[in-house]
Design brief:
Chain A is of the alpha+beta class. Chain A contains 15 helices and 16 strands. Chain A starts with 5 loop residues before the first strand and ends with a helix. Classes of the chains: A alpha+beta, B alpha/beta.
Chain lengths: ~475, ~475
C-alpha cells in the first residue's frame, strides 16, 4: 500500500512554562538567562529536609488555561511524585499531577483546508520543570544548571484527533496563541518555554484500530514538528510495507540530519512509580475561584478575529494579522476609536506600522506615539493638509520621536499648498516659459500634460495640492 | 544533687531566680557528656562553642530582665535528623557524612529563638529506620540503665542522653514509635504530637506522611513546656496544621477523675513479656484508683497495622531517599566511571543494610503491576485504622496501652532478625498511621531494673489531655526521680 492508503493519527503533549515571577514550590526567580545555579535555594536544590509550598499563582494560570480551552476544572486534584534518577532532577522525583489533574475534557478549534476542526484536549496538569544538563562541557564533564528546576509548567495533552502534520502545526499555533493571549506563556519555542512531544501512529485508511505509536521528542520549532511528523509517518509506513512491525519507542528528532533516531525502547521505559505526594495536601478549588478567574478571562484569538471582521468590516486577511498578537489588536482598537475608517487604518497598520516595527526590531508595546496622534495624522491626509506620501514620512518621524503630526508637518514644511492664487501664479509662470510645449499639447499630444504637472510640482517642491494643480492647468490650457 | 539531675523546669526556676547561670548549666552538661558519653555514645557531635555562646547570650538576657521565654538558657540536644545551620547533620548515615546544612529546621529555629542552648547532635538509627539505634552507620548507643542493652530507636540517642542527664531535654522524631519506644526503654517521657502539629520543615524525611517531631524529657511537665515552643503552624510545611496552640501546662494538674480511658484489647496480645504486662496492668489499676473509668475497647484493624506500615513507610522512603545520588552534596563515589556507576557506587557505599532493605521494599510496593495490590491497598487499610480510632474516641477520652511488648533487649540480640525487630513496633505504629498523638510515660521497672513505659493515645490535637493523664500518674510515683546508674 502506498502512503496515501494509510491514515496517520497524531496526539500532542505540550509543556508550557508559566510566566510566574517565582517557581512553583519555592520563592526563587524564574528569570531566563541568569548565571547557572543562581536562581536556586535549598528547596529547588532538593536539599534534605526541605518541603514544597505551592505558588497559588500557578493554580490561577492553570484554571485560566483550562477555562480558555473549555475544560472541566476539577474541584479536587492531587499532586503525585514521578520517580526517576537524573542529575538535573534534584529530588530524584518530579512533583506533578497524575491520577487527578486540575483540568480535563477541553477542546480547541483549528482551521484546516476542509474547514474548522475540533481537537479535544484530554487533560491539563501542573508540574515542576527539571534543570538542564550540559554535556561535553570540556574535560569529558557534564554540568548541571538548576535555574530551571522548579519553574512551573502546564502539560496540555490532546486526544489523538490530528490527522496530518499540518493539522498538528495548526493546533500548536492555535494553542500557543491562546496561551500567549492569556498571558500565561511567552510562546517561545527556541528557548524551550513552549515545548512539544508528538505521539504518531499510522493505520490503514478506514480502520478504527490505532497502530502502534511512537513518541517524538526535541521538536523545538513549528518547522521541525512538521518535518519530524512527516518523516515518522513515512518511516512507519515503510516498516509496515516491508512486512515489519512498528515498535513502541521514544524517538529523538535530529535537526541537522533531518531524521529521527531511537532514544529508548518500550523495554527501557521507566517505571515512574507514581504515588500521591505526601508533602502536599490535595488541591481544592472552589466554584467561586473558578468563576472569578472566568470573569477575568480575556477575549481569545479566534473570537477577536471574528469580531474584527464583523465590527470593523475588515477582510479576514487583515483581521488575522491585526489579531495575531493581543497588544497589536489592542492598539488597533484604540486607534479605531479615534479614526472612523477601519480599512484605511488597517492599511496604515499593515503597510507602514508593521514595517517600521520590523525595521526597528521592536513590538507595538514600545510604540512612542499615541492613538490620538495617529488619528490626527490620518485626518490630515484625508483633508489634504499633507499628501499620502509625505504622511508616511511623518509617521516614520512620529515613530522615532513620539512628536505630534502637526508639529512635524509644520517643522519640515510638509504642508500642502492649497491656496489657489499661489498655485495659479506658478502655473502661469510655467506656461509662459514653455510656449512650444503648449503648441504640442494643443496639437493633440495630450501626454505633455504630465510634463506641465511635473514642472509645477517641482517648482513648488512637491507641496502643491495635486488636485488643484491639475484643475488649474486644465483650465489654463483651455480644456 | 548535681546540677544535671534537675528537670528542665527546675533548672528554669533557678535560672529565673539567678541562682545558676545558663553557662554553668551548659558547662555542667558538657562535663557530664565528657564523662559519661564514652560509655553511652548518645552524641554524634557536640557543639561546645555554639552551646556556650548561646548560654552566654541567654545569661545576658536574663541579666537584662528580658528572657526569651520560660526555658531560656536550658540546654538541650537534637536528634541528628534536624538540620542545623553550619553544623554537620548526617541522619546517622554515611551518605550525609560531612553535610553541613545551609539552614535550620523550623523547630531548631524555634528553640534558638526561645533561648535554649543546643548541645549537639544525637545518634539515631540510619535515617530513623530502626528500633534499637543499631542501624546507625556510626555506632550503637547504649542504654544508661544497662549499657549492654539498647536504648531503643530510632531516637535512641535522644532518649539515652536525657536518661543519662547529658542534656535536660531533647528533640526526637516518631514515624512508627521512634520517640515513644526509646522513651519507654529509658524511663523518660516522649510525646509524638498529632501529625501536622509540629513542623517537619528541615527535618530529614523518612516517611513524610508519618514523620512527626516531638519532645523527649524526664518529666511530663518538661514535655509540656518544650511542646509549647515546638507546636506552631509553619507556612513552610504544607502539612502543618493551622491550629491554635493551647497552653499545655494550664490543665496539667487537673487529674483523671471522671475521665474514660479505653483499654484496647488488641494491645494485650500474646507474646508480651510478663513483667512488662504486669507493670502496664498496675498502671491501669492506678488510674482506676485515681478516679478514671477503664473501658474495654476494640481497634479491630490493629493486626494490619504492621503490614500497612511496612508498605507505606518504605514506599515513601524509597522516594525520599532518591535525592542522595552523589550529585550535589554528601557522599560521592569519586572513582565512578559514568553516571550509572556514580549512582550505584554512591548509594551502595552510602546506605546501610536496613536502609537498602526499606528502599527495596518501597520500590517494589510502588512498581507497576504491584501498586494496586500493595501501596493502594495499604492506603485503604490505613483509612480503616484511622476510623478505628475515630470510632473509639467517640466512646472514651483517651487510650492506655503498652508501648513495647518487651523490655530493653541486648545490643546485637536482634540485628540479624529484622522481622522480629519490626514486630516490636506493633503497638506504636497504629498511632502514626492514624495521625493521632501518642505519649510514653514511665510506669515501672522489671526486676532486673529495666524501665517500662505506658502509652497514652488521644484524639487529634488533644496533646494537653494526654499530658494531663500522664501527669496524674507521674504525680503518684517517683519513677522520674530514679536516675539511671551512670
Amino acid at each position: 500500500m502506498p502512503v496515501s492508503d494509510f491514515q496517520p493519527v497524531i496526539g500532542l503533549e505540550v509543556h508550557a512554562q508559566l510566566l510566574t515571577q517565582s517557581k512553583i514550590f519555592c520563592g526563587c526567580s524564574t528569570a531566563f538567562g541568569a548565571e547557572p545555579n543562581r536562581n536556586t535555594c535549598p528547596v529547588c536544590l532538593g536539599m534534605p529536609g526541605v518541603l514544597p509550598v505551592l505558588n497559588e499563582r500557578v493554580v490561577d494560570f492553570a484554571i485560566r488555561t483550562g477555562l480558555a480551552l473549555e475544560c472541566r476544572v476539577n474541584a479536587k486534584s492531587v499532586w503525585s511524585r514521578k520517580n526517576y534518577f537524573y542529575p538535573d532532577l534534584p529530588k530524584g522525583y518530579q512533583i506533578t499531577q497524575y491520577d487527578l489533574p486540575i483540568c480535563e475534557y477541553g477542546k480547541l478549534l483549528i482551521d484546516t483546508p476542509q474547514g474548522e476542526k475540533l481537537i479535544r484536549v484530554r487533560r491539563i496538569h501542573m508540574e515542576e520543570d527539571a534543570g538542564k544538563s550540559v554535556h561535553d562541557a570540556g574535560g569529558g564533564q557534564s554540568l548541571v544548571d538548576l535555574n530551571r528546576a522548579g519553574v512551573p509548567l502546564l502539560e496540555i495533552v490532546s486526544e489523538p484527533d490530528l490527522r496530518d502534520a499540518d493539522e498538528a502545526v495548526e493546533y500548536l499555533k492555535a494553542l500557543r496563541d491562546v496561551l500567549v493571549y492569556l498571558g500565561v506563556n511567552d510562546g517561545n519555542l527556541d528557548e524551550g518555554s513552549f515545548r512539544c512531544d508528538a505521539n504518531v501512529s499510522v493505520m490503514p485508511k478506514g480502520s478504527d484500530t490505532y497502530g502502534q505509536r511512537c513518541e517524538l521528542k526535541n521538536l523545538n520549532s513549528f518547522r521541525f514538528v512538521k518535518q519530524a511528523i512527516e518523516y515518522e509517518i513515512s518511516r512507519q509506513v515503510d516498516v509496515i510495507e516491508s512486512g515489519g512491525k512498528v515498535d513502541q519507542e521514544t524517538r529523538l528528532w535530529d535537526v541537522n540530519k533531518g531524521v529521527s533516531r531511537s532514544m529508548r525502547s518500550k523495554e527501557d521505559a521507566h517505571d515512574y512509580r507514581y504515588f500521591p505526594e505526601p508533602d502536599l495536601p490535595p488541591l481544592h478549588v472552589t466554584t467561586e475561584v473558578i468563576e472569578a478567574v472566568g470573569h477575568e478571562l480575556p477575549e481569545l484569538p479566534r473570537a477577536k478575529l471574528q469580531r474584527f471582521v464583523n465590527q470593523y468590516g475588515l477582510p479576514v486577511y487583515d483581521a488575522r494579522i491585526l489579531t495575531a498578537e493581543r497588544p497589536l489588536a489592542d492598539f488597533f482598537e484604540a486607534c479605531a476609536e479615534r479614526y472612523p475608517d477601519a480599512k484605511k487604518l488597517s492599511n496604515w497598520f499593515l503597510g507602514e506600522l508593521l514595517r517600521l516595527l520590523k525595521e526597528e526590531g521592536s513590538t507595538v508595546t514600545s510604540v512612542r506615539f499615541t492613538p490620538v496622534q495617529l488619528a490626527e495624522l490620518l485626518g490630515a491626509v484625508d483633508q489634504g493638509t499633507v499628501s499620502a506620501n509625505a504622511g508616511k514620512d511623518v509617521l516614520a518621524e512620529m515613530f522615532r520621536t513620539g512628536r505630534s503630526a502637526s508639529d512635524i508637518i509644520a517643522e519640515k514644511g510638509l504642508a500642502q499648498v492649497s491656496d489657489t492664487g499661489a498655485i495659479e501664479a506658478v502655473v502661469d509662470d510655467i506656461l509662459a516659459k514653455n510656449a512650444g510645449e503648449i503648441e504640442k499639447y494643443r496639437a493633440g499630444k495630450k501626454q505633455v500634460f504630465g510634463f506641465f504637472v511635473g514642472q509645477v510640482m517641482r517648482a513648488m517642491k512637491g507641496k502643491g495640492n495635486p488636485a488643484l494643480v491639475n484643475e488649474l492647468l486644465k483650465k489654463k490650457l483651455g480644456d | 544533687m548535681q546540677l544535671t539531675d534537675l528537670t528542665m523546669l527546675e533548672l528554669a526556676e533557678k535560672l529565673a531566680a539567678g541562682q545558676v547561670s545558663s553557662v554553668e548549666a551548659t558547662r555542667a552538661c558538657l562535663e557530664r557528656i565528657h564523662r559519661v558519653d564514652p560509655k553511652i555514645r548518645a552524641f554524634l557531635r557536640v557543639d561546645e562553642a555554639g552551646a556556650l555562646a548561646a548560654a552566654e547570650a541567654s545569661d545576658a538576657r536574663r541579666k537584662a530582665g528580658t528572657p526569651a521565654g520560660p526555658l531560656d538558657g536550658v540546654p538541650v540536644g537534637l536528634k541528628d535528623l534536624f538540620l542545623t545551620e553550619g553544623l554537620e547533620t548526617t541522619a546517622g548515615s554515611r551518605v550525609l557524612e560531612g553535610f553541613v546544612p545551609p539552614l535550620d529546621a523550623t523547630v531548631v529555629r524555634l528553640l534558638r529563638e526561645a533561648g535554649l542552648p543546643l548541645l549537639g547532635k544525637l545518634n539515631l538509627d540510619e535515617f530513623a529506620m530502626g528500633s534499637s539505634n543499631e542501624s546507625s552507620a556510626y555506632f550503637p548507643t547504649h542504654n544508661p540503665w544497662d549499657v549492654t542493652r539498647t536504648p531503643g530507636g530510632s531516637s535512641g540517642g535522644s532518649a539515652a542522653a536525657v536518661a543519662a542527664r547529658e542534656v535536660f531535654g531533647a528533640l526526637g522524631t516518631d514515624t512508627g514509635g521512634s520517640i515513644r519506644q526509646p522513651a519507654a526503654f529509658t524511663n523518660t517521657v516522649g510525646l509524638k504530637p498529632t501529625y501536622g502539629r509540629v513542623s517537619r520543615y528541615g527535618v530529614i524525611a523518612y516517611a513524610s506522611s508519618l514523620d512527626q517531631p516531638g519532645p523527649m524529657t524526664r518529666t511530663v511537665s518538661d514535655a509540656a513546656a518544650l511542646l509549647q515552643i515546638l507546636a506552631r503552624h509553619d507556612p513552610r510545611d504544607s502539612t502543618s496544621a493551622p491550629v491554635k496552640t493551647p497552653d499545655y501546662s494550664a490543665e496539667l494538674e487537673k487529674g483523671v477523675r471522671g475521665l474514660k480511658l479505653g483499654v484496647p484489647r488488641e494491645y494485650f496480645a500474646q507474646g508480651m513479656e510478663a513483667e512488662v504486662e504486669a507493670s502496664v496492668r498496675a498502671a491501669l489499676r492506678e488510674y482506676e484508683r485515681l478516679g478514671a473509668t477503664l473501658v474495654d475497647v476494640s481497634l479491630p484493624h490493629t493486626k494490619y497495622a504492621l503490614a500497612t506500615y511496612y508498605l507505606i513507610a518504605p514506599a515513601e522512603a524509597s522516594s525520599n531517599l532518591a535525592r542522595y545520588d552523589g550529585v550535589r552534596y554528601g557522599l560521592r563515589a569519586k572513582d565512578a566511571r559514568g553516571l550509572k556507576e556514580l549512582y550505584s557506587l554512591t548509594r551502595e557505599r552510602g546506605f546501610g543494610p536496613e536502609v537498602k532493605r526499606r528502599i527495596m521494599l518501597g520500590t517494589y510496593a510502588l512498581s507497576a503491576g504491584y501498586y494496586d495490590a500493595y501501596y493502594l491497598r495499604a492506603q485503604k487499610v490505613r483509612t480503616l485504622i484511622r476510623e478505628d480510632f475515630t470510632r473509639v474516641f467517640q466512646e472514651v477520652d483517651a487510650l492506655v496501652a503498652p508501648i513495647s511488648p518487651v523490655a530493653p533487649f541486648k545490643l546485637g540480640e536482634k540485628v540479624d532478625d529484622p522481622l522480629s525487630m519490626y514486630l516490636m513496633d506493633v503497638y506504636t505504629l497504629p498511632c502514626n498511621l492514624a495521625g493521632v498523638p501518642g505519649l510514653s510515660v514511665p510506669c515501672g521497672f522489671t526486676k532486673a531494673g529495666l524501665p517500662v513505659g505506658l502509652q497514652i493515645l488521644g484524639r487529634a490535637f488533644d496533646e494537653a489531655l494526654l499530658l494531663r493523664i500522664a501527669r496524674a500518674f507521674e504525680r503518684e510515683h517517683d519513677f522520674f526521680r530514679r536516675l539511671a546508674p551512670v
